[in-house]
Amino acid sequence: MAGYVSLPASQVEGRHVVQEETESLSSGVVEVIADIGVQFSNLTTAEEVSICDIDQQLKGLHNKILNWEPGKSLISDLVQVVDVVLELKEVLGLLHSSSENEKHNELLTFAESILQIGMARLEDEFVELLADCFQPLEPGDTSFHSAEDESMDFSSSSFGEETIDSAPNIDVTREPDRVGVAPIQHGLVSDIVSIANLMSRSNYNKECCQAYVMSRKYALEECLSVLQIEKLTIEEVLKMEWKVLSCMIRRWNQAMYTFIRVCVARERHLCDLVFGQLPNSVKQSCFLDIAKSSVLQLLSIVMAIAISPPEPEKLFQTLNTYEALKDLLVDMEQFFPEDDGSNVLTECHEVAMRLKESVRRTLEEFKYKIQSNSSSTAFAGGGVHHLTKYVMNYIKALSAYSEALNLILEGPNEKEHSLSECSRQSSSPLAWHLTLVTAILEEKLDHRSQLYQDGSLKNIFMMNNIVYMVDKVKGSDLRSLLGDEWIRAHIWKFQMHAREYERTSWSSVVSFLREEGICKQNSSSPSVSVLKDRFRGFNLAFEEAYRAQTAWIVPNEELREDLRIALSAHLIQAYRTFEGRYATYVDGDRNRERYLKYTPDDLEEFLLDLFEGSPKSLQSQRRW
Question: 452 and 395, same structural domain?
Fold first, then answer.
């Protein structure tokens, strides 16, 4: 009979499914779909369906779609209404294949038109839901701790002549302590997934993917903006002043963890959820379109850091960046497998390699700066030179990066400097390089010490700087790198300078207390005139040494006390013996006080003024 056609059993089963699904719809939608269910529920493969009934049902569905109000009706209602339109279109397609009836063609075109309207509505809702499926990333959602922000400041000017009063306290914590970002709101995801599945079944895959990519790509770019990762070219980064760039690098390094492990990770997860029923190639293609440009933007900034000129003050930020990228490479390998054709992972490895090269070049520049540091003026007071403070605090800070640096520095070039055999047998590449740095520093300090006119001050200078080096190594991770043998060798060097100081500094003073030449020839009695000359000479020599050495400085309290004790044992004891033996021979002189100006106790007290860096004179401190 014209206008009728038999319906396949598979379509009958589909109708039963539709009827069962309508139980969750709102009452208005239920009425429309229930009518369709009645038409189809009693059919068998031999029964026929009226074209007029389909026409009536399509008009009802069309009306429901046009009158559907966002925010007032459930999205699942719209999904199921459009799903029924799709089912009817498929039925009409079967009818059309068996009939030349013009009404069939009109209904098929009508069903396609309704489906397009419904898909447009669903696409709008799809985009809205995607925008709401995550709570917006806020700056306060991430918490970082980085003690380096408070104290690490190795400026290149530290290689100059100005004095650094105190060394920076380095405590590096690079990875965020906590990342607290709201997870996916799965209540919305179910609607997103149902829309995506329906658009896929309706051959709207392209439109679905385009809408998805556009929405989520914008959201990911917003994350970059919230994390203050600007869109900068390599040229713009290279032109920045270091103080500005340094602050930005700190922020970028911290933000990278949040961006990759939170923002990109949740995009990967959402993509897997939404397109779970589609081939992996579709999911990966959508994810790449969303994430690739933002990740490459981040990597371009890192590349700019890597190719910037090697300056020692930049090394720690470069290392922080390298460690951050190295930590995140595991995540990147998961998100961007090598077979996806995106080259993102290749770019990550290229940037990491450039960062390693930058670290090596910067370490070489650091050693060159030490070697080329020179001056024509002796360092005032013989204290710890600012170059020593800078270098030792620098390598102390480097020890916090030992794991990364050992990877970067594998295969050191031992020909660049002559070291002892024990130095060449350092336990790690970093230990080898740090041993080399300390050797270069010592060589430079020795050259500096030659600028002193006073040999005693030369030894004070070397003692101060070697003790500072030893203390830095003993009290930090440098000890495990340089080793106890290095410490013992430098303690021996310090002791050698201490003995030389005592010999050169006070031997001329003590020489006035010698026994030789005091007695007259062929007599056991001392010469009073010789004694007067000896006491007077001692006083002048002591006063000169006192005036000079109160201006010298020994910052290390323990070293300062040890030097005073050694002087007391050597000088004061000798004077006490000499005075006790010969003072009575000048007692009768009316100018006795000119010769016996100081008692042993006076001298003991005066020694406490030495090495304080405040020049004093004994001319106004006579004690009778």
Answer: yes
Is residue 550 assigned to a domain? yes
Q: Is residue 4 part of a domain?
A: no
93: number of Cβ within 10 Å: 13
Question: Which of helix, strand or coil describes residue 391?
Answer: helix
User: Is 133 in contact with 358 (CB distance < 8 Å)?
Assistant: no
Residues 500 and 591 in one domain: no
User: Is the distance from CB of 76 to CB of 33 less than 8 angstroms?
Assistant: no
Distances (CA, A) of 584 to 29, 532, 589: 127, 12, 10
The DSSP annotation for 560-598 comes to HHHHHHHHIIIIIHHHHHHHHHHGGGGTT-TTHHHHS--
Closest CA to 426 of 402, 391, 397: 402
Q: Are 11 and 94 in contact (CB under 8 A)?
A: yes
Cβ atoms 397, 316 nearer than 8 A: yes
Q: Tell whether 615 is covered by a domain.
A: no
| C-alpha neighbours within 13 Å on the C-beta side of residue 585 | 18
CB-CB contact of 595 with 586 (8 Å) = yes
Run means of pLDDT, 10 residues per run, the chain, 624 residues: 34 36 42 47 41 76 75 73 78 62 74 80 85 74 45 54 44 47 69 86 88 93 89 89 89 90 91 87 91 92 92 94 93 86 88 95 95 90 95 95 92 45 63 95 95 93 97 94 95 93 88 86 80 92 93 94 90 92 82 86 93 81 46
Check whether residue 358 and residue 379 sit in a common domain.
no
Cα atoms in the 13 Å half-sphere on the side-chain side of 14 = 15
Q: Are 598 and 540 in contact (CB under 8 A)?
A: no
**How many whole angstroms from its chain centre is CA 614?**
43
Q: How many beta carbons lie within 10 A of that of residue 317, not counting itself? A: 22
> What sign has the CA pseudo-torsion 572, 573, 574, 575?
positive
Q: What is the DSSP string of 174-211?
A: -S-SEE------HHHHHHHHHHHHHHHHTT-HHHHHHH
Q: Are the beta carbons of 118 and 140 closer than 8 angstroms?
A: no
**Unique residue bearing structure tokens 């719209």:** 78
Beta carbons of 140 and 181 less than 8 angstroms apart: no
Identify whether the C-beta of residue 115 lies closer than 8 Å to the C-beta of residue 57. Answer: no
With beta carbons less than 8 A apart as the criterion, state whether 68 and 119 touch: no
**In terms of Cα–Cα distance, which of 68, 34, 26, 226 is closest to 141?**
226
Q: What is the pTM of this model?
A: 0.77
pLDDT score at 288: 93
Residues 603, 528, single domain; the answer is yes
Same domain, 18 and 64: yes
The rounded distance, in Å, linking the Cα atoms of 209 and 193 is: 12
Spatial separation of the C-alpha atoms in residues 122 and 198, rounded to whole Å: 9
Domain of 64? Answer: 9-132
Residue holding tokens 């029964």?
47
Q: Is 274 within the bounds of a domain?
A: yes
**Residue 154, Cα to own-chain centre: how many angstroms?**
15
140 vs 143, 255, 258, CA distance in Å? Answer: 7, 12, 12
